[in-house]
Structure formats: C-alpha cells, structure tokens
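Two records follow; treat each independently.
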Amino acid sequence: MRTPDVKFLLAHPAHFIALGFGSGLAPRGPGTVGTLLAVALYAPLALVLDANGILVVSVVFFLIGIWACARTGRALGVSDHGAMNWDEVVAFLPVLVWARQSPAWVILGFVVFRFFDIVKPPPIGWIDRTVGGGLGVMLDDVVAAACTVGLLALVRYVIG
C-alpha cells in the first residue's frame, strides 16, 4: 500500500479528483474534510444551478468518481484508501440540496452523514464489504447520503 503525497496527487487527474483536489491528504479526518469540501463546492454551484441542476452535477461527479477512485485505488494498492474522499464530496451534495433551508439542517445533515459513513450500518456496511472497485468506493457513501436524507426527512416530519 502506497501513502499518497502531493507528487502522487498531481501525477494523474484521477488522483487529483479521487483525493478531493488535495483535501484527502489531510493528516486527520480526510473523509470529514471531503464532506466540508462539498459544502464549499455547493455554495458556487447554488449560485448558478437550481436543486435539479446540482443533482445532475452530482450524478456526473459520481460517474467520474467511479473511474477516478478505481484508477487511484489501483495505484495506491488498496481499493478504498482513506485519502480517497471524492466519494464524500459527491455524496454530500444531495444532502445539501435537501438541507439548504437553514444552517441548522446543514449541520445536522453533516453530523448524521458522517455517522453513517463512519459506522456503516446496514446496508451501507454490506455495500462497503461486497461491491468492489470504484463503484464500491462511491456507492456506499451515496447510500449513506440517502439514509441521511431519509432520517432528516423523518425528523422534519416529527417536529412539524
């Protein structure tokens, strides 16, 4: 297993993408840093795109991520290296679309998403263990995001 550095990051566009434009090189919590990167990317996207446009961009980013994470995982010698955080970036964008009504919902969404991404309850853990390659890297985080939106919707419904 190789440890990525700035030289690795810049060696191929797939590495630059899979490592979240360099945010995956954070010494601690690269997944959390990638989730924060999604918040930073959401702001300019929301200036030029409506919610549906951001969801379309998320799908395109997901497809690019399958390629980038597969190639980067092979180069690092492990399919889902911790520094690869494009999956968190992409998965959190739809959560932000749903939570955009207030900073409190964004913060709650952030906490819930990180919980699902770290703990990996079913079916997230099953996907993480059984779906390989770039698709597996990307898919478990998308399911974590879907669970996050579902839980936030339930909370919103309960509190009225």
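The next record belongs to a different protein.
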Amino acid sequence: MRNITLVGFMGTGKTTVGRILAKRLGYRFIDVDGEIEREQGVSISHIFSELGETYFRMLERDFIKALSFREGLVISAGGGAVIDERNIQSMKLGGVVICLTASPDVIMKRVGNSSNRPLLKAPDPMSRIIELMGAREQFYRKADFTVDTTAMTPEDVAEEIIRLTAGKI
C-alpha cells in the first residue's frame, strides 16, 4: 500500500482532490502545508514573512522525507516542494507522484486574491503565476503522471488518478 503524492502549482486542486482520493482508496490524507502550520503553530504566510522561504523549505523537506517511510497516504505537497530534488526523490521512494496542472486563468480564479498565498503577493498576480509556473515546469515533469484539472471536477480527477495508478500502489 504505497503512497500517492500530489504535486503541482497552487490552485490545481491538490488538497480537494487529495481528500476525495484518500476517502475512495481508504488511505489517510496528509496536507504538508497544513501539517507544517499545525506543528509550527503559525501560518505558512507567517513562516515566509518572519522566518523566510529557506526555513520553510527546510521544514517541508524534513516532513516529506519522513512521510516517504509511511504507507497508505495520499499526500498533498506544497506547490514549490518539487524545486528541491531531494523532495522528488523522497516522494518517489514512498510511492507514485501525480502532478496536477491547470491553466493560469483557472488558477487565478481558484486562488483569487487569497491572503494566504505568500508567493502571489505581487503587483500583478497573473504575471507571477505565469512566471512561477514556467520556472517550476521542469520539476513538475518529473512526476510519474500528469492530470490537467482545468476542465475536470475534483471527483473526475480522483477517478483519473485511480485509473492511472491501478496496479502501481
């Protein structure tokens, strides 16, 4: 009973799909960002602004590595987790990695002007989305499978992941 780790840009549906997928598979759902917030007692935005992205990425790396030794999990990794090769190695060690994608327009609609998205605190959030997606694309391609969530319901995405991973988890 290996893990399924969902990666992808913010707003692609990792958390929503992850919860549905875990329920359908009888797995436990883990949201890496949520667990880091719970463990640290502060929001990700607070960690970024007060302690820096480097500190956050260290916490994220340690948490993802620890999860790779567990089984029966659907893991929602933060959007930037893939930029550290060690995270990708840990995710693949623990199971199958699925990248969720969506168009920049859909991502903008989904995340809107959310104050808990520290990397989008920019004068032009759409440009920032496009810039970050481009910079991370090479890392997202390292996933075992990719599912474009742009025109799919979360339930349909979960079903597609179950189909793609049949016999692999």
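Discussion point: Residues 3-165 form a domain with the Rossmann fold fold (CATH 3.40.50.300). How would you locate this feature using only the token line?
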